[in-house]
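Fresh eyes needed here. Kindly weigh in on this sequence plus structure tokens:
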Amino acid sequence: MALEIHDRVKETTTTTGTGTYTLAGAVTGFETFTANLDNSDTTYYACTDNTDFEIGIGTFTSSGTTLARTTILASSNSNNAVNWSSGTRTIFMTYPADKAVFEDASGHVSLPHDLFIAGGLIDLKNDGGAVSQIKFYCESSNAHAQTLIGAPHSESASNTLTLPSSGGNARLVSTASTATLTNKSIDSDNNTITNIVNADIKSSAAIANSKLANSSITVADPSSSTAISLGETITFLGTTNEVEVSEGSGTITIGLPSAITANVTGALTGNADTATALATGRTIGMTGDVVWTSASFTGAGNVTGTATIQAGAVENSMLADDAVGADELAANAVVNASVASGAAIDATKIHDGSISNTEFGHLNNVSSNIQTQIDAKTTLTAASNEATALAIALG
């Protein structure tokens, strides 16, 4: 079913009431509806008896040549179907003003409804020097819109923009807005991608070494140089098994395997994360006034040893007054042999301190057993006293 409009189509009808029109044949000089419409086609019509009128959309039926009053657009009966009385009227195809498209006084054309173009091609040419454009309003009552505009004449552009053909509903990506692209491929050979950081790359990306800016390491010696791609194995050859790295400034970090068999010449700094023992054990010792010798030290465990203070190693000048007290001496630590003959030990330091130096001096020049001397002194005194007493008695 299609809506058709043709020129010079007019017939007569004697239909009464408000029912379907029965077409009675063409007016002289005009064609019939049958000659221009197929069954179920629709058309704009006007029917009048030169007094009343009715304009609407009618549906044609080829069997019986009738035209149903599908939609009433305007009429002399308050825009309702006219109730026709007896008589002959004319009915013809028309172009209703309500459906007409025309330029307004400013030369603009407005469409109140959707626009369908059967040919599939729209050519937009501006009436001035500006670039043609299409504005898309969100609603008819709003003033803001998005504009689709072509490139300026200076660019001589004649390219084609093709919309996505699959993948469901989509949105166009703007160079000025923020958007997330999913499952898209970018031709890196013809595009420049900037501002990508590590966080933007998935851990499973598996980027090939050949895609990196520096995808190889050049190993050089005085006679030759070889570029080794990342991920390959570098083998250093030579009779001395040496790897020489030279850098004028900065820091060079070399990742080494878990086990290294090599000779290292030079100073190493830092601490080993793990170590079991020295390859060759060492003995740690001390000589001089204090002698100490440890067991063999390999680093596999702690070692101990016994230190000995050599004879004469500690002199009086090394000890402060009262530096060694009773608490610092073990029992029987000091014997006669430990005391120098000229030590001049104060008498109060002997025994319980009850004998003074003066009393202790009375013992000077006592050469034999003290009790024997005392006994001898006592006998002489007694004899002297007895003689004195006798002399007094004899008067």
User: Anything to note?
Assistant: Residues 354-395 form one domain. The two ends are 195 Å apart (CA to CA). Residues 89 and 296 are 135 Å apart (CA to CA). The helical segments are 357-361, 370-394.
